[in-house]
Specification:
Elements lengths: L22 E5 L4 E5 L5 E5 L6 E2 L4 E4 L6 E7 L12 E5 L10 E3 L4 E3 L6 E2 L7 E2 L4 E3 L8
Antiparallel strand pairs: 1-2, 2-5, 3-4, 3-6, 6-7, 8-9, 9-12, 10-11
Length: 144
């Protein structure tokens, strides 16, 4: 008589959920990308790699690639009864070939040449998204 043992993953008592959607932010001071929306319970890998890297904090600094690169992020598995989650994918874009050339016009009190991926803040306040290629600065400082 031959004994056969089967292990069925679908019968696991607990399955980890996919992580919330992580995003990349660019840190212009460090000249690096920062993967945010992650926790130490997660791991990541480049989509073309088979090796997962454990995340040890709430963000990961990554060099900006020469070509667009997709990363997979998932909640780590901790045992056979708590396997890793499905992964989420996020793409880190390469640097733009041309840098934005924003220009301040004192006469019209506006900034032109902005990109829709630009953010701004006044006096260390909250970051705000730019919503067009031209932005009025009237009233940003309270006086003109």
């Amino acid at each position: 008589m031959v004994a056969i043992s089967l292990f069925v993953l679908a019968a696991c008592s607990t399955v980890a959920y996919s992580p919330i959607t992580p995003i990349f932010a660019y840190n212009v001071v460090l000249d690096r990308a920062v993967l945010t929306g992650v926790t130490p319970l997660m791991e990541y890998r480049v989509s073309t790699s088979l090796t997962w890297t454990v995340i040890t904090g709430t963000s990961v600094e990554i060099d900006i690639p020469d070509a667009n690169t997709t990363y997979h992020i998932r909640t780590r598995g901790v045992s056979l009864t708590q396997p890793a989650s499905n992964f989420r994918s996020v793409t880190l874009l390469t640097r733009s070939a041309t840098l934005p050339t924003a220009t301040l016009n004192y006469q019209t009190e506006s900034i032109t040449g902005l990109h829709l991926t630009t953010e701004y803040r006044v006096n260390g306040g909250m970051w705000n998204n730019v919503t067009g290629t031209t932005m009025s600065i009237v009233g940003l400082y309270g006086t003109t």
